[in-house]
Amino acid sequence: MAKKNKVVKPQHEYTRHQLSKMRKAQRRQHFILFGGIGVIVAVVLLIVAGWVNSEYIPLNKTVLQVNGVKFNTAYYIDSLKLAMASQNASSISDVSSSLISTILQDELEKQGAAKFGVTVNDSDVINLLKINNIPVSAASKDLAIASLLPDKLKSDYFNTLVPVSDNQVHMKAIMVEDENVAQTVRDRILSGDNITALAAQYAQGYFSQEYKGDFGMHSAAVLRANEIPEVPIDFAFGPDGTIGSVSQPLTDNTSYKQLGYWLIKVDDRPSDTTANVTAIYCANEPDALSVKARIDAGDNVADLADQYSQYTDVGQHGELGIMNSTNNVSDTFNGYVFNPSTKLGEWSSPLRDTYNWTKGGVWVVQVVDRQDNAKLSDDDRKTLIDKEYNDWASALMSESASGYKETLSDSLKAWAIKRATSELQSSG
After folding, report:
1. Which listed residue, of 68, 101, 169, 274, carries a Cα 20 to 30 Å from 202's Cα?
2. Beta strands 358-375 and 319-324, pairing class
3. Rounded to whole angstroms, how far apart are CA atoms 144 and 136?
4. Other Cβ atoms within 10 Å of 165 Cβ, number
5. Mean pLDDT lowest for which of 80-94, 178-192, 236-250, 378-392?
6. Which residues, other chains included, contact 424 with Cβ-Cβ below 8 Å and sequence gap of 6+?
7. H helices then E strands: how many in the chain?
C-alpha cells in the first residue's frame, strides 16, 4: 500500500502588530532582569561601602609610626584588650591614657635591641603566649617580646658593660639636721660609740634612716646606682677616706629630711576654726633661731620668708592667708595656730615639726674598710646591670623624638575604646 505524503503545516507568521508586542514584552523582561540585578548590585555596594567606612578604614588607620613601623587602630584595640587583662585597671579609659606611650616605648626598645644584635626567639614568644593562654596576634606577640626583651638585653648586652671588680669601701654614715648635732655625733664616734647605734637617735633623711647608718661594702658606682647621696660617697672614696677615718661635718644642700622648724604669727582669728596666718618653715633649728632674732630686730619678714621658708604651700612672702582648722599642714602647726591661748600678732619660738619635709642636712661619715679592685658581688653586678638598662631605656624616648609620630585622634580613640569594650564584653 502506498505511503501517504506527510502534510507539512505552514509556519505561523506573526503579523507586524504581534511582532511589535513581542518585542515590547522582551524589552520589558530585559529591563526587569537587569534592573533587578542593578538593585542587588547597588545594595551590595552600599553594604560594602558602609563596611569600608565604618569598619575597614577606621581599623586600618595608622595611629602611630615609629621609625617607619606603623601601628593601626586594630592593633591599638588588641593592645587595649591585652592591657585590660594584664594591668587590672579599673576601666579601659585608664589604660588608654598611657597605651600609646607604652606601645612607643616597647617598639623603641625592640628596635634599639636589634642594633645591639639582641632579639627574642619567635618560639619563646609563642611559648609565653601559650603558657598564659593568650591568642596570637601582632599586639600579643609584641607584648610577649616586651616582657622577654629586658632580661635578654641585660644578659646578652648590658652584662658585658659592667666590670667584674672595682674599688670598694665599707661606709658608715649618718645625716643629721644641722652642724651642731653633726659635731656631737662625730665626737661620740671618736669616743668609741657605734655609729649604727647613734643612727637610731640622730639619723635624718630616708637613706640615713633606711640603712641605719651602715651602707656596707660597695663600689661608688653601686652606691650611686642605689641613689645614695653624693656627699658621703665623695668623702668615703676620696683621698681623706682612709680606713678608720671619720669625716668632719659635711654639708648636704640637696638631700631631704622629714623635719623642720616653724615660726608662726597668727595675725587674726575670724572664728574659732579659722585664722589668718604668716609663717616661715626653716630647715633646721639654728636657721629658725637666726630668723626669729632677725624678725625681732625688725628685718623684712617677706624677704626672710623668701630666703628661708621651705613649706611648699606658703603663699606670697610667707603670707598663708586664712587657714581652716581642718587643714592638714601638721599637728604642730594646727596645735599652735588654733590654740585659744596663742596671742595674736606675736611670732612663736621655733616649733619642731616631723611631718613636713625640708631640704638640707649634715653628714658624718666613717670608713670602716676599703679594698681596691675587689670582686663585685652578684647582687652588686645585678644592680649595675639594671641601672645600665634603665638608663638606656629611659633615654630612648628623647633620643628618638624625631622618629615617631602619633596620629590617634580623640574621636578615633573613643571609637576604639567603644569597640574594645564591646569585644571584651562579648568574649567574657
Report:
1. 169
2. unpaired
3. 10
4. 13
5. 80-94
6. 81, 84, 92
7. 16, 11
pTM for this entry: 0.80
Residue 315 has pLDDT above 70, yes or no: no
Task: Estimate the crossing angle of helix 73-87 against helix 410-427, to 10 degrees.
Answer: 60
Cα–Cα distance, 247 to 1 (Å, whole number): 151
So what's the pLDDT on residue 29?
58
Question: Which residues have a Cβ under 8 Å from the Cβ of 221 and sit 6 or more positions away?
Answer: 166, 384
CA distance 390 to 204: 29
Q: Is the pLDDT of residue 169 over 60?
A: yes
CA dist 304 and 318 (Å) reads 9
DSSP string, 333-391: HHHHHT-TTSPTT-BPPPEEESSS-EEEEEEEEEEEEEEEEEEPPHHHHHHHHHHHHHH
Q: Where are the alpha helices (DSSP H) in 172-219?
A: 179-190, 195-202, 206-210
Please, which pLDDT band fits residue 24 given cuts at 50, 70 and 90? Answer: low
Residue that is written with C-alpha cell 594646727 in the block: 334
Q: Which of 314, 266, 261, 320 is nearest to 289 (CA)?
A: 261
Q: Which three cell numbers stand for residue 141?
A: 606577640
Which phi and psi (to 5°) does residue 66 adopt?
Answer: -130, 100
